[in-house]
Recover the amino acids of this structure.
């Protein structure tokens, strides 16, 4: 019997089966680590230790050239998606890339990005994590429409499936309809999220502005937007930090606010005790 492209429903069932086994394996690893290093240290490093379950599962199966338990259950065979003539087993490099993305992706979103962006605004951090999450959503939409690459890691590594099992009922139309609905939902969620993030950004800027205006003397420099230091007046009467306005007129010979001509720094008036 010749191999055929599997129905999307087989890919979903196989993947869910693998997730169940990985979850069970993760519980066993957690129990072992809690006994060895204690509950407190396990809780501290749980995100890193949780990678061991999927990593060990795929190293024993996929990296060794064997089917996973989910693939065996649904009679799925991994093939190289770049090979257009016949079927070819994916190279070890492709399998390593697939395993790496599949295992490290949760660590990137859960640990690495928050650490790299720890000094960023909260809305900026949320936006990056939101986009990382939406990559998975986009991959799912493409799977619903085209029927391949249920997992984001397999799309990147270009690993597809073949099978000898043919379902009596064709589910492709149903999944395409699901893909269209998911696309509409994705577009709406992006629009709503954009408006929310824009509002949050404006709110943060407004709060920062209010905190500046509420600072001592209730004054701020229009160039650096901080409380004025060594207040200096231009000939037209506008006030700035001494350093800010001096750096400004070295490049542009006019007032930043009203654009009155300022020929030299000698016309600036340093206001003592202001």
């Amino acid at each position: 019997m010749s191999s055929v492209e599997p129905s999307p429903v087989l890919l979903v069932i196989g993947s869910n089966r693998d997730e169940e086994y990985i979850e069970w394996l993760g519980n066993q690893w957690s129990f072992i680590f809690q006994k060895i290093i204690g509950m407190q240290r396990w809780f501290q490093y749980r995100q890193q230790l949780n990678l061991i379950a999927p990593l060990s599962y795929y190293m024993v199966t996929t990296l060794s050239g064997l089917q996973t338990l989910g693939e065996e259950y649904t009679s799925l065979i991994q093939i190289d998606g770049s090979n257009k003539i016949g079927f070819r087993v994916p190279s070890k490099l492709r399998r390593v890339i697939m395993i790496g993305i599949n295992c490290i992706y949760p660590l990137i979103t859960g640990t690495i990005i928050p650490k790299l962006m720890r000094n960023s605004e909260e809305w900026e951090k949320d936006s990056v994590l939101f986009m990382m999450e939406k990559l998975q959503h986009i991959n799912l939409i493409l799977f619903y429409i085209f029927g391949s690459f249920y997992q984001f890691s397999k799309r990147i590594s270009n690993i597809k499936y073949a099978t000898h099992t043919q379902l009596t009922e064709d589910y492709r139309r149903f999944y395409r309809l699901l893909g269209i609905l998911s696309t509409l939902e994705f577009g709406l969620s992006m629009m709503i999220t954009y408006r929310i993030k824009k509002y949050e950004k404006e709110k943060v800027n407004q709060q920062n502005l209010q905190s500046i205006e509420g600072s001592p003397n209730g004054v701020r420099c229009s160039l650096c937007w901080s409380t004025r230091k060594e207040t200096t007046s231009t000939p037209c009467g506008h006030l700035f930090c001494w350093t800010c306005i001096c750096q400004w007129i070295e490049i542009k010979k006019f007032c930043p606010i009203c654009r009155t001509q300022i020929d030299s720094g000698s016309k600036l008036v340093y206001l003592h005790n202001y």
Summary: The mean pLDDT is 82. The chain has two domains: 8-204, 217-274.
